[in-house]
Write a structure and sequence with these properties.
Layout (H helix, E strand, L loop, with lengths): L4 H15 L2 H10 L8 H12 L1 H13 L5 H21 L8 H22 L16 H37 L1 H14 L6 H10 L3 E2 L2 E2 L1 H6 L7 H4 L1 H19 L2 H21 L3 H4 L7 H20 L12 H6 L10 H23 L21 H11 L6 E6 L3 E6 L7 H6 L4 E3 L5 E5 L4 H14 L13 H4 L2 H7 L6 E7 L2 E6 L7 H6 L4 E6 L2 E5 L5 H10 L1
Antiparallel strand pairs: 1-2, 3-4, 4-6, 5-6, 7-8, 8-10, 9-10
Helix pairs in contact: 1-4, 1-9, 2-3, 4-5, 4-6, 5-6, 5-7, 6-7, 8-9, 8-15, 12-13, 12-15, 12-17, 15-17, 18-20, 22-24
Length: about 550
C-alpha cells in the first residue's frame, strides 16, 4: 500500500484514540501509590492499561482508520493482535507476555491491517453458501489470516528485528543533545501537518527498554531514572514560553483592542500552562509569522537539550502542563529546576515575540484589520453551533467526512475552497490548514471532538438538500441512467451504490475506469474520492431521481 501524505495524516489522527486513554491510566497509577492514596487496586488498574498498550493501539488504530470509525475494525484488530502475539510466542518458545517490546509495534501493525481490511472488504459479497461470512464478518477473518502471516515473518526474523530495534534505540539515546534537539524541532514542525503523533509514538512508546517497559513514557512510569529525556523539554515551553508569548501579543495589541483580546489570550495561555495543549496558541502565529514559529521550534529543541544537560527528568501521561507536573513530581528527577529554566523561557518568549511583532508589524490578535477583528459568533445551543459550522464549511453537500483529533477538526470536503474562513474564525477557529486537494483541518482546541460530534449529528438530521437552479445543459442528460452507468465504468464496475443528502455514494471495483469528464457533462456537480475505491458524486435536485434509475440497471 502506498503511504501517501493523506494516509499518514489519517494514521496520525487514529493514534490519538488510544493515546486519549493515557491520562486516566496515569492518574489511576499515580494516585494509587503509597505516597498519595495508597490504594493498591487503583494503582493496579492504571498499570493494567500501561501493560496492555499494544492491545489498545491495535483496537484504537483499527477503529480510527476504518471508514465511519466502525467497531468491526476494532474487533478485527483485536483478532489480528492476539493471533500474531500468541503465534510469535509459540514460534520463539517464549512465555506469555515475554516479548513486551514487541507489543506496541505489533499493535500498530494489527490496527493498520484491520483498518485497511475493513475499508477494502467491509462490503464484500460472497457466494450464497458462504454469505454468512460476507460483509463486515469477513474483516476479522482477513485480519486473523494476515496476523498469522505477520507472526511467521516476525517469528522467523525476530533475532534480526530485536537487534535492529535495540541498535536503533541505542543510536537515538546515544545521540545525546543532538538527537534531543532534532526531536524537539521536528516535533513542532510536524504539528503543521498533524504528523507529530507518529514521531511522538516512536519516542514515547518504543525507544529504550527498562525491565520490559519500552518507550520514554512507559519507562518513566516503570521507575527508570534515565527516562523522561523526550518529555522534559516540553515543560519550559508549554508552561512558561507560550504563556509569555500570549502576554507579548496582549501587550503588542492596539490599546483600544486590548480589552477585547485579553480574555482570548488569557484562555490560550492558561490552557497551555495547565494542560500542555498548545495548538490554539501556535496557530495564532504559525502561518502569520513563520519566522516566529521557526524560532519557537528551535527554542523547543534547545529546551530538550537544556533540561537534559541539567539532569532534569519529568514525565506526563497527557502533556507537559501544570497538572502532570504536580501529579508526577515525586517520580521526577530534579523537578524544581524547571522553575528557573521556565522563568528564563517566559522572559525569552516575551522579549522575542514582543520585539518581532512590533518590528515586523504582525497582525497578531488585537492588531488585525477591522474586518478581521469581527465579533465572534455566539451560539446558544450545540445544535446552533453545528448548523453554523456546516454552513461555514460549504453546506451539508460539501462535507464528505467529519472527524477530529485532540484539537482539530479533520475534514474531507468536496471542495475545500468553498468554505467561509472569516465565519470559521468567528466561530472560534484558531487556524485553518488545507492538507490536500479535498482535506481541511480546523484548529479549535480541546473542543474539536465535541464539535465534530455535533456536526455529524446535524448532518444525520439534516433535511434533504433543496434543489439547485437548473444547469445550462439538456434536462434529459441529467437523468440519463445508462449514460451515467457507462461513465462509471459499466455495471461490473459499480460494486455498491448508496445515497445521502445530495450525493451518490459509489464503490467501484476499478476506480480508474470512471470517466470524470463524462460525468460532468451529464450534470454531476462535483466528484470527491474519500478512499481508494470510494467516489461521492454531488448531484442537483432530489438525489433519488438519480439513484433509483441507476439502481434498476445494476
Amino acid at each position: 500500500m502506498k503511504l501517501r501524505f493523506a494516509g499518514l495524516q489519517q494514521l496520525g489522527r487514529a493514534l490519538m484514540l488510544p493515546i486519549a486513554v493515557l491520562p486516566i491510566a496515569g492518574l489511576l497509577l499515580r494516585l494509587g501509590q503509597p505516597d498519595l492514596l495508597g490504594w493498591a487496586a487503583m494503582a493496579a488498574a492504571g498499570d493494567a492499561i500501561f501493560s496492555n498498550l499494544g492491545l489498545l493501539f491495535a483496537v484504537g488504530v483499527g477503529v480510527g482508520l476504518a471508514r465511519e470509525n466502525h467497531g468491526a475494525a476494532g474487533l478485527a484488530a483485536l483478532v489480528g493482535f492476539l493471533v500474531t502475539t500468541r503465534a510469535v510466542e509459540t514460534l520463539l518458545a517464549a512465555p506469555p507476555g515475554g516479548l513486551a517490546k514487541l507489543s506496541i509495534p505489533v499493535g500498530l501493525l494489527s490496527g493498520i491491517i484491520a483498518g485497511i481490511s475493513y475499508n477494502r472488504f467491509g462490503n464484500i459479497t460472497l457466494p450464497s453458501y458462504l454469505s454468512f461470512f460476507g460483509g463486515r464478518r469477513f474483516v476479522p477473518i482477513v485480519s486473523g489470516l494476515a496476523g498469522l502471516v505477520l507472526a511467521a515473518v516476525v517469528g522467523y526474523a525476530w533475532p534480526f528485528l530485536e537487534r535492529g530495534m535495540d541498535a536503533t534505540s541505542h543510536a537515538i539515546l546515544g545521540a545525546g543533545s543532538l538527537g534531543l534537539f532534532a526531536y524537539g524541532v521536528l516535533n513542532r514542525i510536524l504539528i503543521v501537518t498533524g504528523l507529530h503523533h507518529i514521531l511522538n509514538n516512536f519516542a514515547w512508546f518504543i525507544v529504550g527498554d527498562y525491565h520490559g517497559a519500552t518507550g520514554d513514557l512507559k519507562r518513566f512510569f516503570a521507575g527508570d531514572p534515565t527516562a523522561g529525556a523526550f518529555m522534559s523539554g516540553f515543560f519550559p515551553v508549554m508552561m512558561f514560553g507560550l504563556p509569555g508569548a500570549c502576554l507579548a501579543m496582549y501587550r503588542a495589541a492596539r490599546p483600544e483592542r486590548r480589552a477585547g483580546v485579553a480574555g482570548l489570550l488569557l484562555s490560550l495561555g492558561l490552557t497551555s500552562f495547565l494542560t500542555g495543549v498548545t495548538e490554539p496558541v501556535e496557530f495564532t502565529f504559525m502561518f502569520l509569522a513563520p519566522v516566529l514559529y521557526a524560532l519557537h521550534a528551535v527554542a523547543t529543541g534547545l529546551a530538550m537539550v537544556v533540561m537534559n544537560l541539567f539532569g532534569v527528568r519529568l514525565g506526563f501521561s497527557f502533556s507537559a502542563g501544570l497538572f502532570d507536573y504536580v501529579l508526577n513530581f515525586s517520580h521526577a528527577q530534579r523537578p524544581l529546576l524547571l522553575l528557573p529554566i521556565g522563568a528564563a523561557y517566559f522572559a525569552l518568549y516575551y522579549a522575542v515575540f514582543r520585539f518581532l511583532i512590533v518590528r515586523l508589524n504582525l497582525a497578531t490578535p488585537g492588531r488585525e484589520s477591522e474586518d478581521a477583528a469581527a465579533e465572534p459568533i455566539a451560539t446558544a445551543t450545540p445544535d446552533a453551533r453545528a448548523r453554523a459550522f456546516v454552513t461555514a464549511l460549504g453546506g451539508a453537500q460539501n462535507l464528505t467526512e467529519v472527524d477530529a483529533c485532540t484539537t482539530r477538526l479533520r475534514l474531507v470536503l468536496a471542495d475545500n475552497k468553498a468554505i467561509d474562513e472569516a465565519t470559521l474564525k468567528r466561530l472560534g477557529a484558531r487556524g485553518i490548514l488545507r492538507s490536500s486537494a479535498q482535506g481541511l483541518q480546523v484548529v479549535l482546541g480541546p473542543i474539536a471532538d465535541q464539535v465534530a460530534g455535533e456536526i455529524r449529528a446535524a448532518l444525520r438530521s439534516a433535511p434533504p438538500a433543496a434543489p439547485t437552479p437548473p444547469q445550462p445543459q439538456p434536462p434529459a442528460a441529467a437523468h440519463d441512467a445508462p449514460a451515467l452507468l457507462a461513465a462509471l465504468g459499466g455495471r461490473d464496475n459499480v460494486v455498491d451504490l448508496a445515497t445521502a443528502a445530495g450525493r451518490l455514494l459509489i464503490r467501484a471495483a476499478r476506480p480508474e475506469r470512471i470517466d470524470e469528464s463524462a460525468l460532468a457533462k451529464l450534470g454531476i456537480r462535483g466528484i470527491a474520492r474519500s478512499a481508494a475505491d470510494r467516489v461521492h458524486l454531488l448531484v442537483a435536485g432530489p438525489v433519488e431521481e438519480w439513484g433509483e434509475p441507476l439502481r434498476r440497471l445494476l
